[in-house]
Write a structure and sequence with these properties.
By secondary structure, this protein is an all-beta fold. It has strands at residues 31-34, 37-41, 46-50, 52-56, 67-74, 80-86, 91-96, 102-112, 127-134, 141-144, 148-151, 157-160, 162-166, 177-184, 190-196, 201-206, 212-222, 237-244, 251-253, 258-261, 266-269, 274-277, 288-295, 301-307, 313-317, 323-333, 348-355. It contains no helices and 27 strands.
């Protein structure tokens, strides 16, 4: 339009023209809020975590867009049995491998389907998530061998007793292991108390001349600790150590040889044998018997020589008998010979000499 007016048929406006103003769509970036670190315990199983919040495709005019979470990188995929995934509602799911622990850093981005035409942005800012699988110590274990039986006085023992000794799964192989004997109901049985080395070897020395039974309660411990509910001790196992009695030989000290003039009276030599012992202190109640094993001149005697348990020697000579009798004597107890025991002493010899009366 001009200001020339319309007088005399003038025209002050141009022809009309049409202008189309188009406001072109430009996709706004989607967005979300989320924690940047998640921690779970080893062997916790499948995880479903409400992780992302305030998930938005953009302004209101983009509400209908489809949203997808993309995990752009994972620097420790070997940590997982089922790899991490994030659903459109922000739920994070994954399963760590059994007996595995460590950290995985994920780079995550939310994407809509609004495209990038006209300079639009269809991806959110990248966010980092650290997934930490915290170590949980598994209990150590071992297989116990059978109860142990030994004979009295056999000396130092070194027995491969525990087998299949394990600190736990493969990731715990480097742990140090210690066998602990939690109780022993008969410590008096041992000169050197029972111990079990980390390789399962049981060592001990029973006291000399001792026998009986000892019940041990044993547990294997690792140095993995108990953090996060870990278990550093095995199940308890019981070991019975039996030391079987072995009879020791009795002993005595013989008296002097006897030389007397012949007479027919009963001869009594009190305490002829001395230091009469059935064996060590655990055998003091045994019954003892002197045995005349041989007498090479029995005709000299009306009553053959005999020795009472207290060591008293008695005999009675025949009328006018003279000569020398060589006698062999042993001492026997009633402890028996089970397990290689010895119930009879070494033989000892003495002589009885009968000389003519008045000679």
């Amino acid at each position: 339009m001009d200001n020339g007016g319309t007088a005399n048929g003038g025209i002050d406006t141009s022809l009309r023209q049409t202008l189309l103003i188009s406001v072109l769509s430009v996709n706004d970036a989607p967005s979300f809020m989320a924690s940047n670190e998640i921690s779970i315990l080893e062997d916790a199983g499948a995880q479903a975590i409400a992780w992302a919040m305030d998930i938005s495709a953009g302004p209101a005019d983009e509400n209908g867009q489809t949203l997808t979470f993309n995990i752009l990188s994972n620097n420790n995929a070997d940590l997982f049995e089922n790899q991490p995934e994030i659903a459109s509602d922000g739920s994070l799911t994954f399963t760590a491998k059994t007996d595995s622990n460590g950290e995985a850093e994920l780079v995550i981005q939310l994407m809509d389907n609004g495209g990038t035409a006209n300079g639009g942005i269809d991806t959110s800012l990248r966010q980092t998530l650290l997934i930490s699988v915290l170590s949980v110590n598994d209990a150590p274990s071992f297989t116990a061998d059978a109860d142990i039986s030994i004979l009295e006085d056999v000396g130092a023992q070194a027995i491969p007793w525990a087998t299949d000794i394990s600190a736990g799964p493969a990731d715990e192989i480097g742990q140090a292991l210690t066998f602990n004997i939690l109780s022993n109901n008969n410590t008096d049985l041992f000169e050197n108390q029972p111990e079990i080395a980390s390789d399962g070897t049981l060592t001990f020395i029973a006291k000399a001349d001792a026998n009986g039974e000892a019940e041990l309660v044993i547990q294997l411990m690792d140095n993995g600790g108990t953090a996060n509910g870990g278990i550093d001790t095995s199940l308890r196992q019981t070991l019975l150590i039996s030391v079987f009695s072995v009879n020791d030989a009795p002993s005595f000290v013989k008296g002097a040889d006897i030389s007397i003039e012949t007479n027919t009276e009963l001869q009594t030599f009190t305490a002829w044998a001395s230091s009469i012992m059935p064996g060590p202190s655990d055998e003091t109640l045994q019954t003892l018997t002197f045995i005349i094993e041989s007498n090479d001149n029995e005709v000299l005697f009306e009553m053959q020589p005999s020795i009472a348990p207290d060591g008293t020697l008695t005999f009675k000579a025949n009328q006018d008998a003279t000569g020398i009798a060589n006698i062999i004597v042993k001492l026997q107890d009633n402890g028996g010979t089970d397990n290689g025991g010895i119930d009879i002493s070494a033989a000892q010899g003495f002589t009885i000499t009968l000389t003519p009366s008045g000679g």
